[in-house]
Structure formats: C-alpha cells, structure tokens
Amino acid sequence: MTKIAIFGVGLIGGSLALCFKGKPGLTVVGHSVRESSVAKYLERGVVDHATTSLREAAEGADFIFLCVPVGSLEQYVHDLSGLDLKPGCIVTDVGSTKASVVATARNAQLGNAVFIGGHPMAGSERSGVEAASSYLFENAFYVLTPDASTAQRDIDKLTDLLTYTKAHIVHVAPEEHDEIVGAISHLPHIIAVALVNLVRGYNENNSLYSVLAAGGFRDITRIGSSEPGVWRDILVNNREVLLKLLREWQDGTSAFIDMLQNEDGAGIELAFRQSGQFRSKLPERRKGMIHSFYECYIDVPDHPGIIGHVATELGNSNINLSNIQIIESREDVPGILRLSFRKQEDLDLAVQKLGLIGYSVHF
Ligand SMILES: NC(=O)c1ccc[n+]([C@@H]2O[C@H](COP(=O)([O-])OP(=O)(O)OC[C@H]3O[C@@H](n4cnc5c(N)ncnc54)[C@H](O)[C@@H]3O)[C@@H](O)[C@H]2O)c1
Ligand SMILES: O=C(O)C(=O)C[C@]1(C(=O)O)C=C[C@@H](O)C=C1
User: Fold this and answer.
1) Under CATH, domain 292-362 is a member of which superfamily?
2) Contact 164, 262 (CB under 8 A)
3) What distance in angstroms lies between residue 226's CA and the mean position of ligand 2's atoms?
4) ipTM score here?
C-alpha cells in the first residue's frame, strides 16, 4: 500500500484526500492537532485513518502533504525533520506562497526524504473539510517548484500521484511564483476586502448600500469572504511583493483620479478597452485562473427545476457537462449558471444548443 499522509484536512487537504481515497493501492491518513477534527475527518469519510500523532501519520508515509496555513508550514517542515521518515518519501505542501517554505525545506534535515514545493491554483472563499471536493482541482493548474537538485524520478513520482487531481502540472521557480501569484491572487484578495470594508462603512449609515449591491459588487468581492487566518498568513508571508504591488496599484487609482479630474473620457474608455482586450485573451476562455478550461455563463429565470432543465437539454444532445454552478449574484434567486466543459467542442455545441432554446449565453 502507498501511504499518503495529509496534515491539515481542510478545503485543500480534504480535497486532495478525496482525490486519493479509494484509489487502488492508496491509503490516506489525515492529521490534525485537534481530536475533534480527527473525529470529523473520519465521520465525513474523507480519509481512511486519522490521528493527532505527527509521528504516526508521517512515519512509513510515501507522500506527505502539508496543507496547513502558510504561517505553520515551516514549523511542520522542522517537526518532520526530527522524525525517521521513510527513505524516498516525498514531502510537499500546498501553501499559497513558495519562497519561504522552499528555503526552509532546503536547509532542513529530512534524511532520505525529498521536499518538492506545490501550490494547486484552485480554491474558494470557503474553508474547512466541509468545503472539500474531489473536483476542486480538475483542469486547474498545479504549480510544483522543483529545483536543479530535485531528481527527475521524484518529480515523476509526485506528478504521477497528482494525476488523480486531474490538474495540469506546471513548474515555476518559487520567487517567480510569489511575484505572479501576488498579482493575480493576493492583491485581488486585498482589493476585495478593502472594497467590501469601504462599502460596509457607508452601509452603517445607509442600509440601501447592501440592498442595492448587485452583480458587479458581488462578482468582484466573492473572495472578500475568504478565511481570515489563512489570508493573514499569505499576505504577511508575501509582504515584500505585496508592498510593491500595492504601490503600483495606488498609481493605477491615481491615474483614474487624474482622468476624472480632467474629464478625460477618452482615457477612461481606453482603460476599459485595454482591460477587456486582455481579459478576452486569457487562455482558453477561462473565467479566473481556476476550475475548468471551457466555460460559459447563462442567465436563468427564477423558477424551480431550471438546473435540471439545462442539464437535461445538454444530456439529450450528448453534450458532456463537467460542472454546473450557481453564481449567487442576487440574494435569493439563482441569477447566473456557470457551465464547465472538458472540451472546446462541448462548449461550442452547448452554446449553440442553449442559444437555440432561448437562453442568453455569455463568456
Ligand atoms: N483557500 C484556497 O483557495 C487555497 C488555494 C490553494 C492553496 N491554499 C493553501 O492551502 C493551505 C490550506 O488552506 P485551506 O484553504 O485548505 O484552509 P482551511 O482552513 O480549509 O484548512 C486548513 C487546515 O489546517 C488546519 N490548521 C489551521 N491552523 C493550523 C495550525 N496553526 N496548525 C496546524 N493546523 C492548522 C485546520 O484545522 C485545517 O484542517 C494554505 O497554506 C493555503 O495558503 C489555499
Ligand atoms: O477562487 C478562489 O476563491 C480563490 O481564492 C482561489 C485562489 C485564487 O486567488 O485564485 C486563492 C488562493 C490560492 O492559493 C489559489 C487560488
């Protein structure tokens, strides 16, 4: 049996556990520092075995996934270095920053175990094992950060195991990763939170703000509901990159102040045009960086059975739908459905079919 130990079975650790559990020859052990969490992992059936003992989870493991918040990763690498890990064991993590954990692991005495940094570029604003899903990584990019000293055999071993996630593996250097992910993930989280808190302040004096908050506000602020402790650790860890990005962001907002002061309509139009052109060229029509390669959105009326209707229509036309999701753009009604497909042909056929039966489809 190949033993996989997962430390921190939350959104990401739990989703990995669900990808591996029940696969031939694999056994999944979950670790938490809390007894109550261990009981929950077992109750929910995401792992084969669970323990509060670091030693019991780690020893004899062929793979160790560190899925705890970024601020605890280095301590875990340190604690593992005090154990007798199985020779050839691959230790990896899923942290949203890479430079510090990779540097720590490089200096740690892991015996004959090997560390390869990792970061699945998929997630959500939800947290905990309750939010875990075996589909979370499907079609997402999964960054690994091996360096010149990492044996190809070990990279292959981890890559082979990760095929169960159905993610696309990419190799990126840790520092480059932190710069890029700072811009496309960490900065957007800061902007979302700052914007929500700005409106929260206005709303204290006038509750119409939250009543009228519609699609635009909700679209840009979904990630403003992310887990505070996880994001505290990410931002503090990547602070140098983020300070630079925030200064550049200030330049961006200053440019808008100037354009408004000068009533520079052409400048505003240009900014929107350039932004739209860049977004429309994002690879494979993906919305965000995550989830699925081929996606479209449809507006749906507010009546029961609509999801079933869409799914049935596509099924009847032999169109393979890989995911369907309600985007909660309004409080109590399904407003928009996000449909995901594995193949471009399926997306094209779906767009055609849904258009014919009267749905408004957009990308
Ligand atoms: N949320 C995302 O979208 C996302 C995406 C990719 C990677 N990540 C990274 O994955 C890791 C886990 O994030 P998550 O979203 O699964 O969070 P989560 O809160 O869902 O899960 C975190 C897990 O770690 C445990 N934990 C929390 N604090 C701990 C501590 N101090 N010591 C030991 N265990 C602790 C929790 O009990 C839980 O099991 C983080 O490093 C995060 O940066 C998150
Ligand atoms: O989709 C989301 O909710 C996410 O926050 C996922 C997201 C992102 O910013 O894109 C968040 C953190 C990660 O480390 C990777 C992905």
Assistant:
1) VC0802-like (3.30.2130.10)
2) no
3) 9
4) 0.98
What's the 10 CA to ligand 1 centre distance in angstroms? 6
Q: Which CATH class is domain 2-172?
A: alpha beta
Mean pLDDT by 10 residues, the chain (363 residues): 98 97 97 96 96 97 98 98 96 98 96 97 93 92 96 98 96 98 98 98 96 88 96 98 98 98 98 95 53 73 81 92 72 68 87 89 79
Question: Domain 176-281 classified CATH 1.10.3660.10?
Answer: yes
Cα of 32 to ligand 1 centre, how many Å? Answer: 11
CB 65 within 8 A of CB 117: no
On whether the CB atoms of residues 341 and 292 are closer than 8 A, the answer is yes
Q: Residues lining ligand 1, CB < 6 A? A: 8-13, 32-33, 37, 67-70, 72, 94-96, 119-120, 123-124, 127-128, 227, 230, 234
Q: Does ligand 2 lie within 6 Å of residue 223's CB atom?
A: yes
Q: Show me where the domains of the chain are located.
A: 2-172, 176-281, 292-362
Alpha-carbon separation of residue 72 from 37, 83, 230 (angstroms): 17, 17, 10
What is the amino acid identity at position 80? L
